[in-house]
TrEMBL record:
<keyword id="KW-0949">S-adenosyl-L-methionine</keyword>
<dbReference type="InterPro" id="IPR007197">
    <property type="entry name" value="rSAM"/>
</dbReference>
<keyword id="KW-0479">Metal-binding</keyword>
<keyword id="KW-0004">4Fe-4S</keyword>
<dbReference type="InterPro" id="IPR034457">
    <property type="entry name" value="Organic_radical-activating"/>
</dbReference>
<keyword id="KW-0670">Pyruvate</keyword>
<dbReference type="InterPro" id="IPR058240">
    <property type="entry name" value="rSAM_sf"/>
</dbReference>
<keyword id="KW-0411">Iron-sulfur</keyword>
<protein>
    <submittedName>
        <fullName>Pyruvate formate-lyase-activating enzyme</fullName>
    </submittedName>
</protein>
<feature type="domain" description="Radical SAM core">
    <location>
        <begin position="1"/>
        <end position="195"/>
    </location>
</feature>
<dbReference type="Pfam" id="PF04055">
    <property type="entry name" value="Radical_SAM"/>
</dbReference>
<keyword id="KW-0408">Iron</keyword>
């Protein structure tokens, strides 16, 4: 179902006292930056209402093209927070995991740092895939070097969405991987302890 910015704002207004008291609006997806013009208009209207705005992004569509950067600059005028997933630091391993390298995602993180936009970094911990101590240390060093990261969150991998792949008749790409143990979560959190936030 398609909705206009006006439709969404009318929906938001019904919950305005709660939203303003307890948080704000977070736009996720898919990838919200694929709808950057719509998102900019929505966030501008939210800011007029005094609502905190956040983008939940993988950074996958970030581009250094002048046209995209101009649109991104406009969007960030109305953005309070970006939640950014950093799935893997090594470019080749990232490509194996997601189908693309992570250069543009790292460029996006640096761009947000240059603009001093508050960021929460998230890492999904998958034993045998994203929990190597050396790679987690690289993640920590990258994040520490940004200067705008308010939070680094380790999220346990889970298999709750596997049934969707099965229902669509698709092969689940992380077949055979398991959720991390409590000890594995603690080890990752220990390595990623913040230096500056």
């Amino acid at each position: 179902m398609e909705k206009s910015v006006d439709d969404i704002i009318e929906d938001i207004k019904e919950y305005l006292p709660y939203i303003k008291a307890k948080g704000g609006i977070t736009v996720s997806g898919g990838e919200p930056l694929l709808q950057i013009d719509f998102l900019t208009e929505l966030f501008q209207r939210c800011k007029e209402l005094g609502i905190h705005t956040a983008i939940d992004s993988s950074g996958g569509c970030f581009s250094s093209s002048p046209a995209f950067l101009a649109k991104m600059e406009e969007l960030l005028k109305f953005t309070d927070l970006v939640l950014l997933d950093l799935k893997q630091m090594d470019a080749d391993k990232h490509k194996s995991l997601t189908g693309m390298t992570n250069k543009h995602i790292h460029d996006f993180a640096r761009f947000l740092a240059e603009k001093d936009i508050p960021v929460w970094i998230r890492r999904v911990l998958i034993p045998g895939l994203t929990n190597e101590a050396e790679e987690l240390q690289q993640l920590k060093e990258f994040v520490d070097g940004l200067g705008n990261v308010e939070k680094l969150e380790v999220l346990p991998y889970h298999t709750m969405g596997v049934y969707k792949w099965e229902h669509l008749g698709l092969e689940y790409p992380l077949e055979g991987y398991r959720s991390p143990s409590e000890q594995e979560m603690e080890q990752a959190e220990h390595i990623l302890q913040p230096a500056s936030f």
